[in-house]
Amino acid sequence: MSRNLSLTLRIWRQESLKSAGNFHVYQLEDVSPDLSLLEALDQLNEQLIAKAERPVHFEHDCREGICGSCGFLVNGQAHGPQSATTVCQLYLRQFADGDTLTLEPWRARAFPLIQDLVVDRAAFDRLIAAGGYCSVNTGQAPDGNALLIGQQKAASAFAMATCIGCGACVASCRNASASLFVAAKLAHLAQLPQGQPEREHRAMLLQEQMREQGFGSCSSNLECEMVCPKQISADWISWMHREAKG
Ligand code: FES
Question: pLDDT tens digits, residue range 22-52?
């Protein structure tokens, strides 16, 4: 059985976008390595609430790596040190007894801070609303196999659809670019027959909207694919640039 851990958490505390923020230091003693980092924050919050202090705000929903609502920097890395993992799936066993973990929110102009570790990622919703969908009338549900899609194409489109919109790609890019997110959304639809009628227009609309929402251009650093919990390849960004040229 692995030993329990003592950890120091340095957490960015900021009540609102307009207030000043700074790091607060908390000690977690004798915590199980089998706790997830979010469960450790739950424990910390119980202690803070018992002392009538403001709990640490962080976002979460599924805690299974599916919904994309969690996400912050752990020691400067989006979602922490384990690859292909969301922060809700990061367990304390990744750390050593006595470690200090610095937790801070995504830092990007397009993701304004709400509180502590929570940022507003509605800019992603506005990107999708600008054209990240199929608006053609598809009529009744067709018979199974009426629309044949090659296995490789289907698998590749599905891989793009696994993007959970967590924002790690933006937070890790020195230009705070949403290129990997947009490329995934475009590549998902462009590989399916239903996505063809609006394909070029969609690529143009989303790239325009990306600039309007305050995201930068691709920095070519490829940090986005390193931190993507769904391992979406940055090769799709090059594909997207060709796609937009028609
Ligand atoms: S809480 Fe849903 S992906 Fe982390």
Answer: 999 999 999 999 999 999 999 999 999 999 9
Distance, in Å, from the CA atom of 158 to the CA atom of 168, rounded to the nearest integer, reads 20
Task: Tell me which H or E stretch contains 29.
Answer: strand 22-31
pLDDT higher for 138 or 88?
88
Number of structural domains found in the chain: 2
CATH of the domain at 132: 1.10.1060.10
Same-domain check for residues 70 and 128: no
Cα–Cα distance measured from residue 213 to residue 112, given in angstroms and rounded to the nearest whole number: 11
Tell me the angle at which helices 179-190 and 199-212 cross, rounded to the nearest 10 degrees: 170
Average pLDDT for residues 171-188, to the nearest whole number?
97
Enclosing domain of residue 182: 121-245
Q: Is the CB of 88 under 6 A from ligand 1?
A: yes
Is residue 246 pLDDT above 70, yes or no? Answer: no
Q: Can you give the pLDDT at residue 136?
A: 79
The structure's pTM equals 0.94
Tell whether ligand 1 has an atom less than 6 A from the beta carbon of residue 70. Answer: yes
Q: What is the pLDDT of residue 1?
A: 65
How far does residue 89's CA lie from ligand 1's centre (Å)?
8
Q: Give a yes or no: residue 68 inside a domain.
A: yes
